[in-house]
Amino acid sequence: MSRKSLVAVAAGVGILAAAIALAGCNNQQPGHVTDSASGTPSTEQSAASTHRTSTAEKDVTDEHAHKPGAHGGIIVSLGRDSYHVEAVFEQGGLLRLHVLGSDETKVQEIDAQDLLGYIKASDANEAIAVVFKPQPQPGDTAGKTSVFVGRIPADLVGKNLDVTVPSVRIAGERFRLGFTSTPQSHGEDIMPDKVGDDEERDLYLKPGGLYTEADIKANGNATASQKFAGFKSSHDMKPKPGDKICPVTMTKANPKCTWVVGGKTYEFCCPPCVDEFVKLAKENPNDVKDPDAYVKR
Asked: Which of 25, 142, 161, 290 has the greatest number of beta carbons closer than 10 A?
C-alpha cells in the first residue's frame, strides 16, 4: 500500500472514532435536560416534574361532584359538606335555594334571614345584588325556614350565571355559597325512572302518622317515583285565585300529580313534593291541613 493510501486510512479511522465519541457524549433521551457538570437531571426539571405531579394529585383530590337534586336543581356544598343547598332555576326568573343537611337527601331548616347575594353573567364583570327571602315550608319550625327565594334580574334570565351569597348563617356559623350554572326551565325537567330503595319503600309502603294502610292501598301500593315515572313537571309560579296549589311549593298544582293522605286526595306540582308531604304526614301530622286549605285565595 502506498504512503498516501496509509495516510488516508489513518485519517478516516480518526474521523470515525471522533464521531463515535461525540455520539456517546450526547447519548440521552430527547428533551431530557442534564446538569452540565454531573450529568444528572437539572433542578429545574425536577421542580417542574414535582409541580406536574402535585397538580395532578390536587385535581383528583379537589374533584367533588354531586348528583342532581330531588327538585331537578344543582347540589352545592356548604362548609366542606357540613350542609348543602339545592339551587333550582324556575320559570319566571325565580331562583329557589333548598337548604339540605350533610346528607343531601335530608331537609335542613335554619334561622329565617334575608340572604344578600350577587348574580352576574359568567362572561361579565359587574354583579347585581339580589335578596333571597325566607320561604318557610310546611313542617318548618316557627322562625326557621328550609327554602329561600330570589328573583334573577330580567336581563340575566336564560344566561350562564355566577351566583354568590357571601354569608349564610347556620347554627351560629357563617358559610359562603357560590356556584355557576346554566339555568334551565324547571318545566323542562323530566322525572327519571327510579326503582325505589329501602328508604323510599319505607316512606311509602309503611303507615305512620296520618298515612294509613288504606292510603297505601289507594295509592296503588307504589312509591311516587314508580307511579309517576317519566312524569313531566311544569311549575306555574303565579297561580290565580281559586287555583289549587301544591302544599309544598305553593305553586299551581298539577291535577295529574295526586296522592292520597289521611283518606283525602291532595294535588302537587311534581313527584318530589309528594315525598316531602308524606314525610310531613308521618312525622308531623298536626301540620297537615285539609286539601281545601291549599287553594289560592
From this structure: 161
Question: pLDDT tens digits for 87-119?
Answer: 988 877 889 999 999 988 889 999 999 999 999
**CA atoms of 283 and 208, how far apart (whole Å):** 8
Q: Which domain holds residue 110?
A: 74-187
Predicted confidence at residue 90, as pLDDT, reads 83
**Are 79 and 183 in a shared domain?**
yes
Partner residues linked to 265 by β-bridges:
260
- Whether residue 69 lies inside any domain: the answer is no
pLDDT tens-digit profile of 179-224?
A: 987 544 444 443 333 434 677 889 999 999 999 999 999 999 999 8
Residue 98: give its domain's CATH number: 2.60.40.2480
What stretches of the chain adopt beta strand conformation (E)? 74-78, 83-90, 94-100, 110-111, 115-121, 128-134, 144-145, 147-151, 161-170, 173-181, 254-261, 264-268
Residue 89's contacts (CB-CB under 8 Å, 6 or more residues apart) are 73, 95, 152, 181, 183, 184, 185, 186
